[in-house]
Each structure stands twice: as C-alpha cells, then as structure tokens.
Amino acid sequence: MKKKIWFVGVLLFCYSISAQTKQNLGVVFGITHFQSNTDAFETESVTGITFGVNANFIYSPRSELNIGLRYNRHLLDFKGTESDNEKVFSEKVRLNLKQFEVPITYTYNIVSRQKFKLGLNAGVSGNFFYEYRLHEDDQEHYYLAPNGIDVNNLFFGTKDDKVGFNLFLVGGLSFRFWEKIQFTFRYHDGLFNPYRQATPENPLSDYEAKDHYFSSTFTFFL
C-alpha cells in the first residue's frame, strides 16, 4: 500500500511540474573523466562515455529544472602485476565502471537571449550500481599497486545482489543554442564511501574512497 501511495505521489508531482512549465525532452551523449581517490590503489583517469535522456522544464527565460537518466561507463587505469610475489607493478590494468545516473539540477540562465543561453547548473545526482569489469579478461588474476590487492576484490558490486548507491553534488555550466542544442560541462563530487558495501572479508572494507568526475555532454532537444 505504501509503495502505491509513493508511486501516485511521484506521478502527481511530475504532473504538477509539467502543468506549470514548458517541457522539452532531449537526447544526451558525451564523455566522462572519472577518478577514485583512495589509499588502496594507484589510478589514472581515462576518457569514458555517458548517454541517456534529459527532461527540461522551463519556468521562465532564466529558470529551468532538469531531470535526467543516463548510463555511465567510466574508465580507470590501475598499475598491476600477474604475480602476488612481485613488488614491481609495471603493467596497466584497465577497468570500466558501469553506473546509472539520475541527475536533478536547477539552471539559472545568467544570459538569456532568443538564440543563446548561458546557464549556471547546481543540484544532485543519484548514481546506482557500482559494477567494475575488466577491460581485458586475461587480467582477472592480477594484483594491483601499491598494496597487492587482488583485482577481484573490486567486483563486490558486480557479483552480489546489493544495489550500490552514491550521491553526488553537481555543479557546472550550460550553453544552449537555438533552443535545440546544448553543451554542458559539470563536476560531480561523491559524498559516500563506495567501499562501504564490501564484505568484512574483503580487504577494501578497511579502506575509504572518494569518487568524483567531470562530464562534458551534448544534448539535442527533440
């Protein structure tokens, strides 16, 4: 019963928003540069991809609300070795991190003209799942710098039934041209430790990490 009431409440909220505003639906794609700061590993950011949809609610020429749904495929390079006795981590081990993102942001257009808008963006983003996967399957038994942790310990969010979640603060700039085309540049700052869901037997449960990333996206409004 509670779930039905919640669902009806969400529908009424969305309807109230759409009834008071002009709405646009856009297709989004772009790139990400993801980084996870932790003492557990040495990592280097690689260009990832993001794509999805964005619902744009325009209250006035200067005031807008955006609600999106995106699929993120971040990439990270680790240093590793195939032998757990080897102390020289000379090989590159690339992993991708798959997540679904639900960003909710408010835009204030500091410049609002008929064919151009420059907006300040601020809001939050809920990122669901924390699924690391190897880019190369033949590296599944590698050990990662600097602590020699088995790469398989990163897959706690891939192999169990728990849904990983992190909340990000979001800020950035948007540039819209001719009402149809928008370029957006944002910084996403994670609030929660992603290793908190690792089991006590997993060595990552003894570490903390701070995730953050930049995104550069192109949106075409239909």
> Based on CA inertia axes, which overall geometry fits?
elongated
The total beta strand count reads: 10
How far apart, in Å, are the first and last alpha carbons?
A: 37 Å
The averaged pLDDT comes out at 89
Roughly what fraction of the amino acids lie in strands?
Answer: over 45%
Helicity, as a percent range: 10-25%
Question: Major sheet: order of its strands?
Answer: 1-2-3-4-5-8-9-10
The number of helical runs is 2
Low-pLDDT stretches are: none
Order of helices and strands: HEEEEEEEHEEE
Rg calc: 20 Å
Question: What structural class is derived from the secondary structure elements?
Answer: mainly beta
Strand count, sense and barrel status of the largest sheet are: 8 strands, antiparallel, barrel
Task: Give a structural overview.
The chain is mostly beta strands. Helix content is 10%, strand content 61%. The chain has helices at 2-20, 156-159; strands spanning 22-38, 43-60, 63-81, 91-112, 116-134, 143-144, 149-150, 165-177, 181-190, 209-221. An 8-stranded antiparallel β-barrel has the order 1-2-3-4-5-8-9-10. A hairpin with a 3-residue loop joins β4 (91-112) and β5. The protein is elongated and about 65 Å long. The model has no long low-confidence stretch (mean pLDDT 89).
